[in-house]
Amino acid sequence: MSDCLDPARLATQGARLEGEFPVGVLARIQDVSPEASGPVRYDLRFMRDPAGAIRLEVRVAAQLQLRCERCLEPMPWDVRSETVVAVVFSDDQAREVAGDLEPLVADAEGRLSLRALVEDEILMALPLAPVHEHPCGRQVQEHHPEMVAAEAAEDHPFAALAALKKSY
After folding, report:
1. 3-state secondary structure of 57
2. Is the Cβ–Cβ distance between 46 and 10 less than 8 Å?
3. Cα dihedral angle (19, 22, 26, 28), rounded to 10 degrees?
């Protein structure tokens, strides 16, 4: 399949595209998850709304390796994202898109890059500060005692309330 998509033609056809990329061909994903090796899957549905505007349902999934911001150890991260975007062909059209949709601006020839679209969706689905779901505090205490000491020294906004509660 070509990396170059014609969203107008695909929407008129009501096309659905499914497939996957090896994570190694997605440079920006490799930058945030160099240890990842699995595929990045995508499912795209092109359609036109009643007014004739192009809508695109984007589903992406990948298993990445991110670094926990708490303990700095690598951890698996399951990425799943479902988004609906409005495909537009100019900045003026982008400003007219309904508030519940994100505009996706096609290039000067009215095309979209499949690879860039999938990569963007994966990147937008990533957390700003990934952390383990389970407490990884022991690892932090062992490897970064300065962080534990700094957290303990911080003023906690509800400490005064807790002290009042104990006094009654």
Report:
1. strand
2. yes
3. 110
Measuring CA to CA, which residue among 31, 41, 24 is closest to residue 78?
41
- Mind listing the pLDDT tens digit for each residue in 101-159? 889 999 989 999 999 999 999 999 999 888 888 777 555 556 556 655 555 555 666 66
Nearest CA to 17 out of 117, 124, 125, 126 is that of: 117
- At residue 164, does pLDDT exceed 70? no
**Whether 114 contacts 106, CB under 8 Å:** no
**What is the domain partition of the chain in residue ranges?**
4-133, 135-168
39: number of CA atoms within 13 Å, CB side? Answer: 7
Please give the angle made by the CA atoms of 106, 108 and 110, to the nearest 5 degrees.
Answer: 50
Of residues 163 and 111, more confidently modeled: 111
The β-bridge partners of 78 are: 63
Supply the pTM of this predicted model.
0.74
Burial letters 94-124, b for 16+ CB under 10 A, else e: eeebeeebebbebeeeeebebbebbbbbbbe
